[in-house]
Design a protein that fits this description.
Layout: H1 5-8, H2 14-22, H3 28-32, H4 36-39, H5 47-61, H6 68-75, E1 80-81, H7 86-91, E2 96-97, H8 112-122, E3 135-140, H9 148-164, H10 169-173, H11 180-186, H12 191-196, E4 198-202, H13 206-222, E5 226-231, H14 235-242
Parallel strand pairs: 3-4, 3-5
Antiparallel strand pairs: 1-2
Length: 243
């Protein structure tokens, strides 16, 4: 991942680089993923400026053809992160791949959120333990990581316990740990350290979700070993489309 330092050293104005960063573009790789037409839509960037910025970035990245051996070498940098299930890891060829997008889909209560919570922990395992030795960004569109689902289950369980056995009600209600904690303990990791390496945000609209991703781009440019998990990423987009 190439930051804009090399581009600035080629005589590109730092102010123009800042305009790119304000638009959520923090690396030369990110720059090359936008058309010049889109880049000229950024306030303050003319077509001439965009050409001047893109030229050294293209030379730096050398995104032309490569040999099969070069491609194989690049593939060797891919890390596969364990899902916590040996059978599922084998089906996936060793686990969840980095440097790509993996989508988990299925019916309600089929284990998608549980898989995400497990990956929040396994991503932080060392490479030799089939982890990513990295950090996690979790964008939640449904409030499933810490709050809503846990709250609903707790209320229902509390009501059941209170009606069936009022004496054990208080002990049961206040002994339930956070959902990440038992997963961390299963992998032999310190729960507090694991939670410190997870940054969490609740997205309420598709615009909020988009802005969160823009802010996250800067962090991922500085610390590339991130697992980004947007929970139900399409939910707000569908809602906006329907309206």
């Amino acid at each position: 991942m190439h930051l804009f330092g090399a581009v600035i050293s080629q005589g590109i104005n730092a102010g123009d680089v800042r305009k790119l960063q304000d638009a959520g573009i923090y690396t030369c790789n990110g720059l090359m993923m936008h058309t010049k037409k889109n880049l000229t839509g950024i306030k303050g960037l003319s077509e001439a400026k965009v050409d001047k910025i893109c030229e050294p970035a293209e030379k730096l990245l050398n995104q032309g053809f490569m040999t099969g051996n070069d491609l194989l070498l690049k593939r060797k940098s891919v890390v596969r992160i364990t899902t916590g299930s040996q059978a599922l890891d084998e089906l996936l060829g060793g686990g969840i791949e980095t440097l790509c997008i993996t989508e988990a889909f299925g019916e309600f209560r089929s284990g998608k959120t549980q898989l995400a919570h497990t990956l929040c922990v396994s991503t932080q395992l060392p490479i030799h333990m089939h982890g990513g030795n990295g950090k996690v960004a979790y964008i939640d569109t449904e409030g499933t990581l810490y709050l809503w689902e846990l709250f609903v289950k707790l209320i229902l369980k509390s009501l059941y316990l209170f009606l069936s056995s009022p004496n054990c009600f208080l002990n049961e209600v206040f002994s339930r740990p956070e959902r990440i904690v038992p997963i961390a303990e299963r992998f032999g990791m310190d729960a507090n350290a694991v939670l410190d390496n997870i940054i969490y945000a609740r997205a309420y609209t598709y615009e909020h979700q988009y802005n969160l991703l823009l802010g996250l781009a800067a962090k991922m440019a500085e610390e590339p070993m991130f697992l980004l998990y947007p929970s139900k990423i399409e939910g707000h987009v569908y809602a906006a489309s329907a309206n």
